[in-house]
Design goal:
By secondary structure, the protein is an alpha+beta fold. The chain is built from seven helices and twelve strands. The protein has three domains: 82 residues, Helix Hairpins (Orthogonal Bundle); 51 residues, SH3 type barrels, CATH 2.30.30; 82 residues, Alpha-Beta Plaits (2-Layer Sandwich), CATH 3.30.70. The longest helix is centred in the first third of the chain and has 49 residues. The chain is rod-shaped. The relative contact order is 0.08.
């Protein structure tokens, strides 16, 4: 390369740098200022959501989505400022988003279900619920699944899509729960005596709540027995104990009184 060619290339390079230096300077200025502004916006949004007592999982997730959305917007602005055509880049992003959306339809349904659960709170961590054929205590509400623990210590993961679209029975929301039991006695037994015995058993149990008051009444006259509804109320923490103790104590009290207990059914 001759000295003249070298000087010509150097002149062109200098001219190019001079022409593009304002664009490069403004592009990098936008980049650095944008990154700083995104950090401030993200912190501000997190503080606002925390002050409004939003769920921590939802707060982190929404803040992360906002963070990456702003970063992508800043990147597109940056490359556009330095003179790169962004139309093809945006088209590629759109195609990628469509492909990912089609391949993750089930996951997106679970994601939407998780958002609904977090926002509307049909249950919270620590609640005992019945849903999708499972009765368990909620351990963790994740974005795609809800982690629960059954009474026999089995961990169950229920997809949030099915969970949010199905029926959910929350046994913990009200703080108190009623046990619905049925005791059947023979027709030749003294109904009033049997009722007094059953009610006395409930009133003597310290775990049975006085308000609402426990109930005992005849609910059915079947072909071979008189059926009593026995309904004690208990705190959620005492429900299992009250359920089992009522069964045992009522059976023992009726036997001691000489009242014959017929086969009965239990309604949970």
């Amino acid at each position: 390369m001759s000295p003249e060619q070298l000087a010509s290339y150097t002149t062109r390079l200098v001219n190019l740098l001079v022409d593009y230096s304002p664009k490069l300077f403004s592009a990098f200025l936008i980049l650095f200022v944008g990154l700083y502004a995104i950090r401030l916006i993200n912190r501000l949004i997190r503080k606002i959501m925390v002050k409004r007592n939003l769920d921590p999982t939802l707060t982190k997730f929404l803040a992360d989505i906002l963070l990456w959305a702003l970063r992508i917007l800043l990147f597109v602005t940056f490359i556009s400022k330095i003179g790169i055509d962004t139309s093809s880049f945006v088209a590629i992003l759109g195609a990628m988003g469509l492909a990912v959306g089609l391949s993750l339809q089930g996951s997106l349904s679970n994601f939407a279900g998780g958002m609904l659960i977090i926002v509307f709170k049909p249950f919270k961590v620590g609640d005992t619920i019945e849903a999708q054929g499972v009765i368990a205590t909620v351990l963790e509400i994740q974005i795609f699944v809800t982690k629960m623990l059954t009474g026999n210590n089995q961990t169950v993961f229920v997809p949030n899509g099915a969970l949010s679209n199905g029926t959910i029975i929350n046994y913990s929301m009200q703080g108190e729960r009623r046990a619905d039991l049925t005791f059947s006695i023979a027709y030749d037994s003294d109904i009033k005596k049997a009722k007094d015995i059953l009610l006395d058993v409930l009133n003597k149990n310290p775990k049975v709540l006085k308000t609402p008051a426990p109930e005992v009444f005849v609910k059915n006259l079947s072909a071979s027995s008189v059926d009593f509804a026995v309904r004690p109320w208990a705190k959620n923490t005492n429900y299992s104990a009250v359920f089992s103790e009522t069964l045992e104590n009522c059976k023992t009290a009726l036997d001691q009184a000489g009242i014959s207990v017929q086969p009965y059914t239990i309604q949970k």
